[in-house]
Amino acid sequence: VNVQVGGGIRTREDIAYYLDNGVSRVIIGSMAIREPDRVISFIEEFGSDRIVIGIDAKDGMAATEGWIETSTQSAADVARFFTANGAKHFIYTDIATDGTLAGPNISANQQLVEAGTAEVVVSGGIGSIEDVKRVKAAAVGSAISGVIIGKALYEKRFTLEEALTC
């Protein structure tokens, strides 16, 4: 099983520990906004296939510190910057939809795709199998490569098997 780990990763040693112990990719979020040059050095050292840039956004603006602070950078600008500096993998979470089960913000994810990102995973708002199908439809011919499903599975709105069948 390929595993990605994110949350609280602050140092080179944190990244090395996870990658040396079987984790496929490490997700870096707030640090990407606060210390972009440092994150670029991680991409260079560990490789672009092992570092994922996690962009959480509120009204299109990148947020940090567990969504407490909103930066002055748009999510699309952050994606453009990191794509230009070697990043290939992104997870985009729309704060407004996360945990709501009200459907994902596909248009915001498509803005990241239009920013030139190589791969975007949709996160936030998945509440039904129809939402998964909508993401799949949006992914055709684009850099949208997957979807993160949380609460909908916990609440048994559909099964993982049903989602994988989509």
Keywords:
eight-stranded mixed sheet; globular; alpha/beta; 166 residues; 39% helix
Biggest sheet character: 8 strands, mixed
Give the proportion of residues in helices: 25-40%
N-to-C series of helices and strands: EHEHHEEEHEHEHEHH
Number of helices: 8
Query: Could you tell me the mean pLDDT?
Result: 90
Q: Give the low-pLDDT segments.
A: none
State the shape. globular
* Category by helix and strand content: alpha/beta
Number of strands: 8
**Gyration radius, rounded:** 15 Å
Strand percent estimate? 15-25%
- The end-to-end span amounts to 20 Å
Topology of this structure?
Elements (H helix, E strand, L loop, with lengths): L3 E3 L5 H9 L4 E4 L1 H5 L1 H11 L4 E8 L2 E4 L4 E6 H10 L4 E6 L11 H9 L4 E5 L5 H11 L4 E5 L2 H4 L5 H6 L1
Description:
The radius of gyration is 15 Å and the shape is globular. It has 166 residues and is of the alpha/beta class. The longest helix has 11 residues, at 36-46. The relative contact order is 0.11. The chain is built from 8 helices and 8 strands, in the order E-H-E-H-H-E-E-E-H-E-H-E-H-E-H-H.
